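Q&A log
Question type: sequence-to-structure
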Amino acid sequence: MNNKQPLPLPADSLYRHCDPATLPFGDTTELEHLDNYYGQDRALDALRFGLGIRHEGYNIYVLGSSGMGKHEMLQDFLHQQTFDRPKPSDWCYVNNFSAPHQPKVLRLPCGLAQQLRKDMEQCIEDLLVTIPGVFQSAEYKARLNDISDAFNDQERQAFSELKEKAKARNISMLETPSGYTLAPLVNDKIITSEEFEALSDDEKTAIEQKINELKEELKGLVQKMPMWVKASREQFKKLNQSIVQHAVGQIFRELQNRYADYPDVVEFLALVKQDVIENVDAFREEEERSSVPENLKNRIHEFPMYRVNVLVDNGGACTAPIVYENNPSLSNLLGRVEHEAQYGTLTTDFTLIKGGALHRANGGYLLLDAIKVLTNPFAWDALKRALQSREARIESIDQLLSLVSTKSLEPEPVPLDIKVILLGDRTVYYLLQAYDPDFNLLFKVPADLSEELPRTDANTLGYARLIASLQHRKGIRPLDQSAVARVVEQGSRLLEDAQKLPLHLNLLTDLLCESDYFAGQANAEQIGIVHVQAAIEAASRRMDQFRERVHESILREIQLVDTRGEHVAQINGLSVYQLGEYTFGRPTRITAQARLGHGKVLDIEREVKLGGNIHSKAVLILSAFIANRYARDRPLPVSASLVFEQSYGGIEGDSASVAEIAVLLSAIADIPIRQSLAVTGSTNQHGQVQAIGGINQKIEGFYDICNARGLTDDQGVVMPAANTQHLMLEERVIDAVKRGAFHIYAISTIDEALTLLTGLPAGEPDDKDEYPADSVNGKVMAKIEAWIKVARKFAVDNTQGGDRAD
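Response status: OK
Response body:
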């Protein structure tokens, strides 16, 4: 038999040290700084491609898990890159005089929008000074008097002619407070009523006929008077307009010359000039102390229709804007139209239009968290509409849902020239790819951030330079060689891979800041290894209470876990608990029962719905392995059950499958298993042991229980050989291994695990496919043969009993 028991791993294979002597510097102040995106060559190539290509739909999705420092990394990269992009434009809204509910948008070179706004305010101020002065001029008053006198002369002449006509017909036209009246004359004297009654009937009739005719003429004359008044008003208006046009012409002529290169602005100024001329009376209203500059400034707000609403001002830098919107709601993305309450009514105008992130980032880059956009109502659809139409059209949730009927505006949309960069994890990216058909059309460039890089000498030095840059940026104390080496080692431990270095900048930054705190507590000028270690231990202790409670329940034998002796059908499995970023391991008792049956392995965890899909898969795999090894050409006459004892939550993962095979074979063959060993590892259908996760925490969890009870020098952990490269165990475990008080065994096959756990050779088949009788496999085969005979006996008895019944 060639079943040698695997030897324990040497202590130097349990931890990959970083020798400070190999680091060519005294402290991090001697190192050249690295960018935040160190180690991200693949993602940077994708970013350069996505930012450089100008075709539609080539927006970017940056894939990376939480803690990678995506935002800071991307901001640094964008600020250091120069792309062939034109200077961003300024955007502003102005009044649409023909349709005030549809304000017009103006595009101006960067920095010019604010200048236009100031120029228009100055223009209004100049108009408020110039126009009232024009109407106080002697020339204007003289021309006004001429028009008024002409009207009065026309009225006076018309009534005078009618009066003469009446007198020629012996009728007097008298003017009274209530109007005009007609009376007969005799010898140029108005006769009394008695004298009129004394006249003959023919004379009376003739007089009445004359008076009626004159009344009609008088009535016609009075009816013409409103037309004369209207005509005079038109003359007054034309006079005012001609006077104002001459007065304001110089003001607008200067503005139009200043903005002659911008036709839209010139057109707007012409419309403003025309509206001022048509509504000149608004500028003639005088207030007390109207000549005081402060009052003029206040009066500017009485003319919002002539003002300029600056939506986006890029005058500060005139470089492509980089905008990160932390709260990408619909209004924060697309802008909004605000309202003011006046006398219980909501009113608005174009000066209350506010821009959104799309407006501010126009001509540059907009950074958004994918999950925040997706979870804000209507924001994702609105973003897609804007990218598809290449314009930012202001929308409100109230309008989309038709919740209110408040009068609002329909601003002209702003044309978009923008790169949108979404930041999120891989799950969201692949879900969008699968379920949103627009996503692949709009975000064609994935930039996949690396989570790790190989731990080579060159990369270790590069990692030290990255530490130096973070130390400088955060303003913390420099780290000496030993501190950097400890940070490197802790990075590999957090990554659970001794051959890798993590690129999670947030975790690295936190460790540096916390180490700096402990260095400050010790009044040290530099961060040393003791300060880094203190930070690591403090972070662990802050979240260590639950681990202590779990281990305490085992030590008090509330939860049953044996670490000495031997038991049949009982084994120590290892599991990992994860609470946020804190993980710890603990041993768990796994038991099995086996009896004569029909080849079914009952997964109790699955039956009660506490077992996850991966665990259930592992049980099916081990069932296939056992059936293939021990009953390939016959039915397996075994019914068995597996359970994690005292587990009251879900069980998931396949890392217990080696332990489950061992405990099942122990139950079948009545072979005791050493309780001084704990087992972890996954297996396939061929009995090969595969790597699992959380190996360091699992080993440390079992060691802590054994150490608390007292080490017996034969305790240890059986683990997959493939996990050897992941070992970064804490010093307390390594010291115990060095003393020979604790052992760690690396296995590659189930048979190696069986040899270690039972103390018996696993056994190898001979030419007849038979195993040695004193081996584990031989004992299992013997038990199965015995059950097969019993099963045949039951089958014969049942058949005979059936014949007798017949």
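Response note: DSSP finds 28 helices and 30 strands in the chain.
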